Automatic annotation (TrEMBL):
Cited InterPro entries: Ankyrin_rpt, Ankyrin_rpt-contain_sf
Keyword tags: ANK repeat, Repeat
Protein name: Putative ankyrin repeat-containing domain protein
PANTHER family named in the record: ANKYRIN REPEAT AND PROTEIN KINASE DOMAIN-CONTAINING PROTEIN (PTHR24198), ANKYRIN REPEAT-CONTAINING PROTEIN-RELATED (PTHR24198:SF165)
Domain of life: Eukaryota
Stored SUPFAM superfamilies: Ankyrin repeat (SSF48403)
Cross-referenced Gene3D superfamilies: Ankyrin repeat-containing domain
SMART domains: ANK (SM00248)
Amino acid sequence: MHILLEAGGDRDINSNRYGTILNTACVSGKKYMVENVLDIIPKIAVSTVTGKYGTPFQSAVYGFQSDPKTVIAVFNLLEKNGAVASTEGGHYSTPLHAAIDLRQSLDVVIWLMESSPRSLLVSDVAGRVPLSLAILRGNRDVAKAVFEKTKSILPGSNRSDIQVFFPPDRQDLTLLHYAVISRSSEMVSSVLALFREIPDNPGDLDKLINATDVDGWTPLHWACRWSTEIVMILKDNKADTNTTTNEGWYPRQVAVLHGFENNECIKTLGDSNDESVASHQLKLPENYQRRDFGYCDVCYTYRCWVYYHCEDDYCHDFNLCFKCYKHAERVHFKGHEFCSRVPGS
């Protein structure tokens, strides 16, 4: 690095993907490199927001994913040099969103909540607050810590106005939708238990069970994409198996579309009054049985039959499933173009 600087290298240079040289050093996951860069850049450069990961803090969350002790040491180093953890920007919006989405340790999440409690109320590009992501990623300890910290910064809030902690995202997904999407039966049970404890609104749980998102999908429709166990939990809590989406899909049709023709997932849904559903008469898309181990970068569903890849260099590797792609302008950066791909091709 010093050789390049002596040869005329520009310490203020930015790349579209990684941003400043400080952000790049943080992404590298090497603490000594962060220290070296901090020694050569002007102090104001630590506040620059640029590149996919936006800020030094967010870049460090990404770069030091497997080393929570070191990332906290880097946080302290950045803070000492004038960087601010609450600065927004980049792919994840805040370092707290990044830490939760990338499944950093609870210690890292707590450090960021203490340093920047206001980040708990910030929505990312898809309209998700940190609590949304904590539930989506299925870590009960992190979700509990985020929930309790969010309560502490909203004076006067109590269990009877729980939705205060969970504003609707840009696909109108509820707390229960996110719990279902996490694929964690424990998370689903925890959210249901939380609503059962609401003293003044016993009807809220019934509304939550069959609440629909922007496409008319209930939590049961989402569960039919992957989890028999969660389907059964929702059924036991009076989820309606005959609700249709805006496209006219019943939950069991969603199960068929995702490869569960002969799975227990279908059997638990029972018979339907609609003959086309009972006989599984559904126009299946081409390549509907094609799937791979890649996933949608918004809902983390495994890719099946078709997915959409962002072609913008800023994103590098960002994909949407068929459902989230319908709302690409809501859940991703405006102006980015996508191309369709078939899983495994």
